[in-house]
Amino acid sequence: MQTIDFFTPVVDDPYDYGQIAVANSLSDIYAMGAKPLTALNVVGFPIATMDKKILAQIILGGYEKVKEAGVALLGGHSVKDPEIKFGLAVTALADPKKIVRNNTAQTGDKLILTKPLGAGILTTALKYDRLPDALLEKVTAVMKKLNRIASEVMLRHSVTACTDITGFGFLGHLYEMMAGSKKSARIFTSQIPLFPNVSDYVIKENLPGGLKENRRFLEPFINIPHDFDERNLNLMCDPQTSGGLLFTAPAEHADSCLQELHDLGETDSRIVGEITEKSGFYIHTSYAFDRKD
């Protein structure tokens, strides 16, 4: 299996940016239940106008995250570019009969999300110096975190379908899963993990352009009650960088899967919904969480 992903900086610290870019680049592999083996750097950098030490820190951060993942970095390619870009091309192995796809969710499955939402809104606030250091530290740590453990856990609990949450946001990637699976999802809105105090930052000035595009595209496919909290809708459409895995597992495996995720440090993980037969909209947002369901 092979993937490639790269993007422009989302934080100011070049080392952290390198780490985030690598975690994000490996995420597609983990979402498919595969094992990454080797990687190549993909770099764009304004070498004539920017300090080379910045580039060194980006590559160092990336290298150390690749090493953490147990992946061999074989080299890469760089180009002169007026805007910094960094990421990886990744080669991985998977049993063709066991590849986890994003269009195979089953009726009755529970839906599990492993990282909080709101990274796009918070990193946009960072661009305008509106983000306090403590929250920046939290969102950076989450974006740097590999999805490796979550991938390994889901495979042990009969995962039926998976995607990773990136630019299309939680609802966008869930829509892809439901449309491909020809199912509907009922969302337990109150259980969706969010970054601390992120609702305070859901203001017009902090909304990424991608969030607005996601909403325009998705609204025909989602059952949104007239009194649904606008902030929650924006957070569920927020484009994430290096977001969590969103996967489905049989109901009888969901609680034990969640417990193992928590035991292994994936403490933001939550059961956030369930899969039903297709019923009108692909996604229904107005359901409260009830552990007796």
Which key phrases capture this entry?
alpha/beta, 4-stranded mixed β-sheet, 293 residues, 2 domains, 11 strands, disordered C terminus
- Determine the CATH topology of the largest domain: Phosphoribosyl-aminoimidazole Synthetase, Chain A, domain 2
Order of helices and strands: EHEHEEEHHHEHEHEHEHEE
| Largest sheet report | 7 strands, mixed
Fourth-level CATH superfamily of the largest domain = PurM-like C-terminal domain
CATH class of the largest domain: Alpha Beta
Number of strands: 11
The helix content, as a percent range, equals: 25-40%
Q: Overall mean pLDDT score? A: 95
Q: What general form does the structure show?
A: globular
Task: Show unreliable segments.
Answer: 289-293
* Largest sheet: spatial strand order: 6-9-5-10-7-11-8
Specify the structural class.
alpha/beta
Q: What is the rounded distance between the termini?
A: 38 Å
Strand content: 15-25%
Radius of gyration: 19 Å
Whole-number count of domains: 2
What is the CATH-assigned architecture of the largest domain?
Alpha-Beta Complex
Specify the number of helices: 9
